[in-house]
Every structure is written in C-alpha cells, then in structure tokens.
Amino acid sequence: MVGNGRLLVHNACSKGGKLISQKTNDVVDRVFSNSNKLSHLIDGSKNSVHRWESLVPDKNAADVLDIVKEVLEHGVDELYENGTKTYTTKVSSVTRDGITKIVQITYFMVNGVLTPSNGWVKP
After folding, report:
1. Is 72 domain-assigned?
2. How high is the pLDDT of residue 17?
3. What is the pLDDT of residues 54-78, one digit of tens each?
4. Residue 9 pLDDT > 50, yes or no?
5. How far apart are the first and last CA of the chain?
6. Which is it for the CA torsion 82, 110, 19, 58, positive or negative?
7. Does residue 11 fall inside a structural domain?
8. CA-CA distance, 99 to 14, in Å (whole number)?
9. Average pLDDT of the residues in 4-19
C-alpha cells in the first residue's frame, strides 16, 4: 500500500508498474477467486483464444490478474460487439518484458462498482 487506498500491483511493481486502487484490487481478486471464471479468463474456451501467453509466457494467474487490474484502472472505455451482444470494456496497451500488446477487459457495473467478467490480449 502506498497511501490514499492505492497500491502497486505485484507484477507491475517489479516492471515499472502503475498505482491500483484497493477497490479494484479487491473486486478483481473476489471475481476471479471462482476457479471456473479464472480458468476461462486465462485459457478462453474452444471458440475463443485469450492469448495471455503473449504477455505472460507461463500464464501465471497472479500476473494475468495484475494486468486485468491495471487495465480496469487505467484503460479507456470501448464497446465490443460479439454477434448480437455488445459489451462495455476497458482497453489499454500493456508492456511486459519489452513486449507491448493491447488488452481488453469486459466489465459490468454492479452496485456502482466496475466488475470484470472476461478479458484477453487482442491479436
């Protein structure tokens, strides 16, 4: 914790990281404490590849969640359409080990709190 309810995320901290609010940290950890949601976030499904290995070669969950937190906190809003559904997302460029990619995180507002539901590295 560095003050004002903000902290440096673990992975970002060691690589020039960004400040993350305690609220964002807590909600991401709570949502993805569900192993099925975490597995889908990291591995995608048979019809969607999430490409986390392009930023986190071993797809370490803690490192992926640090990126999710960073994008939710510092990304810009963008609509994402998938067939007949439109999702609200946060999008940001993320750099890890000299590699920069665009990351997109879908989210919903739940009781005024930005709550992530999915995410991926854009091709």
Report:
1. yes
2. 60
3. 999 999 999 999 999 999 999 999 9
4. no
5. 34
6. negative
7. yes
8. 15
9. 48
| Contact between 86 and 79 (Cβ < 8 Å) | yes
**Structure tokens given for 58:** 């071993």
What is the torsional sign of CA 74, 35, 30, 88?
positive
- Distance in angstroms (rounded) separating the CA atoms of residues 53 and 113: 29
> 1 in a domain, yes or no?
no
Domain ranges, residue 108? 6-121
Number of domains in the chain: 1
41-47 mean pLDDT: 90
Residue 116 lies in a domain: yes
How far is 2 from 8, CA to CA, in rounded Å?
A: 7
Output the DSSP codes for the chain. Answer: --BTTEEE-HHHHTTT--EEEHHHHHHHHHHTTSHHHHHHHHH-BTTB---GGGTSTT--HHHHHHHHHHHHHH-EEEEEEETTEEEEEEEEEEEETTEEEEEEEEEEEETTEEEEEEEEE--
* pTM summary value: 0.85
